[in-house]
Every structure is written in C-alpha cells, then in structure tokens.
Amino acid sequence: MSHHHHHHEHCDEPSAHTLTLFTPAGVLTKAAPLRLAAKRLAAMGFHVHIDEAALVRHQRFGGDDETRLSALHRVAAQAPGIALATRGGYGLTRLLDRIDWKLIAKSVDLGTHWVGYSDMTALQLGLLGRTGRRSWAGPLACGDFGDEMLDEVTSDCFAEAMSGALEAVGFRTEAGFDGFEAKGTLWGGNLCVLNSMLGTRHWPKVKGGILFLEDVNEHPYRIERNLLQLHQAGVLDAQKAIVLGAFTEFKKSPLDRGYSLKAAIAYLRSVTKTPILTGLPFGHVPTKVTLPVGAKVTLLVQARDVLIGW
C-alpha cells in the first residue's frame, strides 16, 4: 500500500488508508494488545491513529457513557477510511438512544468503514436501521490483530475488504442445499445483541434478506430460544436464508441427554420455511471473514460450497 500521504493532511479529508482504533464498549485491561494491533496494521500499510480515549477505564467499560459516546462522535467527525473497534464486550446498547446517527451516516458517505463484531453489532444494525448505511462485520483490533497468533485468512480478508478488492466469500456447508440461490440484503451479527434490539426504533426491518448469526458462551437451548424469539416475531420467515457462523465456548449440561446445537438447529428447521445454512467462518473464532452489513448480496450453493458475493 502507498506511503506517500503527507502527515499534514487534514482530518476532514478521508483517505482509504487512514485507520482509527477506538473503544466503544468493553474496557481494555492491557495496552500491549492495542500496541501490537497498531503495529501490525501499520505494517499492512494503514496510517494508524489510536483514539485518545481508547484506554480509558470505567467499571467494565472503556470509559463512562459520555466518554465512549464522545469517542464515537469524534471518530465519525474525523471520518477516517476505517473506524476499527478495539474490542466488543458490552456497552453500545447504553449509547443507542443518544448516538447522532446523522453524523455516523455522514462519515459513511465520506468513505468510513465501521468494522468489528460482537457488541459492534449494535452500532452496525442501528446504522442500518436508522440510516440505511452499510458497515462491515469483521475483526476487532485487540482480539484479532493484537493476538500473537493472528489468523492469515482473517487479516487478508480484512485488507481485501477494506481496499474494495473483496467481492465474495466462500465456505463449506452441510449437504442438502445444492442449487440453492438467494438475493437480498446481508445483515446480522451477534445473536444476543441482535435480539436485544428487536422492538426498538433501532431495529432494521429487513425483508427478504440474508441473516447471518454468531454467538459465544451461550448454551444451545439459549441459542434456540433466541432464534425462536426471532421466528415468533416473524423475522426468520421474512428472510430468504439464515446463515449460521460459529457458536462457541458453551458448557454442556447433564440435563442435555443428547440435546445439542445440532438438535437445536434441526428443531428450528422444522418450524421455519427459511433455509438455515451452517458453516460461515464468522464469530468468536480466530478465522473470520469480513462481511458487508446492509449490502445487496447473492448467495449461491453448489454441492456443499457456498458463495456470498456482492
């Protein structure tokens, strides 16, 4: 990537290579992963700026609500090429009613890619629901770029998505969907965060979309209950397809007696007419793709190979 940008360029002049790291939700307990992430991203050719409040701490949050809201608005006003959250956790839900959505939308119009996953789902879906603007479900600075074992697919996919070179992602799914094809708005993210927005004014009312979901630390019965809430609210039947990413780190219970994530998915398939595909490399796992939230996509299945293109 080019390095001929002058350092005295104006903040309001967005450049595709400027990247700001900010903390909108959970606290960063250590600075080392942030430093490593900044170093790695700089080595990839990005002009990295760390927001002034990135390491502020208040309880479990990256600063109190005021601090995090200001950071969000500050980054939006600067409109960098990429606004990459340092981590997820919890915290954006507290800010949803106070976010200046017009300001965030303006940054997107100026070329800002808002990137992250987990708690960032709240910002991404709010942006789609309130302004119709797109964002990117993808890695987080500390969890991914700040990890000693940064996954190459994650990093390459992110770089290609940010440069505009990425036009599709592919993965393997289970048998039984050969020949399936669907077109619609790609949306979704973390299942619990998404569910917590149902019924609020921030909810994106997507019809005929392709809904992708992931979660962590949730037992399969809780995943099932969340999916049933979406189903009973009419959300699942209104989509063309549901694509499941990774559901990780839950503990099995002696009460399960053969009940599993597979059983939960089988049950969901019995109640909704919408196809439920599995295998999307996305979630609280090292290998994750970067996906355009709010983009019109085409999903194609050939044998067991799925391609989502935009």
End-to-end separation = 24 Å
Q: Decide which structural class fits the backbone.
A: alpha/beta
Widest sheet: strand order?
6-13-12-7-8-9-10
Strand content: 15-25%
The tally of beta strands, per DSSP, is: 13
Q: What is the overall silhouette?
A: globular
Q: Write the CATH homologous superfamily of the largest domain.
A: Murein tetrapeptidase LD-carboxypeptidase, N-terminal domain
Write the H/E string, N to C: EHEHEHEHEHHEEHEHEHEEEE
Main beta sheet: 7 strands, mixed
CATH architecture tag of the largest domain: 3-Layer(aba) Sandwich
In CATH, the topology of the largest domain is named Rossmann fold
Please write the CATH class name of the largest domain. Answer: Alpha Beta
Helix-residue proportion: 25-40%
Walk me through what this model shows.
The structure is a single chain. By secondary structure, the chain is an alpha/beta fold. It folds into two domains: 18-163, 3-Layer(aba) Sandwich (Rossmann fold); 168-309, LD-carboxypeptidase A C-terminal domain-like (Glucose Oxidase, domain 1). 30% of the residues lie in helices and 22% in strands. The protein has nine helices and 13 strands. The strands form two sheets. The protein has a seven-stranded mixed beta sheet with strand order 6-13-12-7-8-9-10. Strand 9 (241-248), helix 9 and strand 10 form a beta-alpha-beta unit. Helix 2 runs parallel beside helix 3 (101-109), helix 3 packs across helix 4 and helix 8 packs parallel to helix 9. The chain is globular, with a radius of gyration of 19 Å. Mean pLDDT is 94; it is low at 1-14.
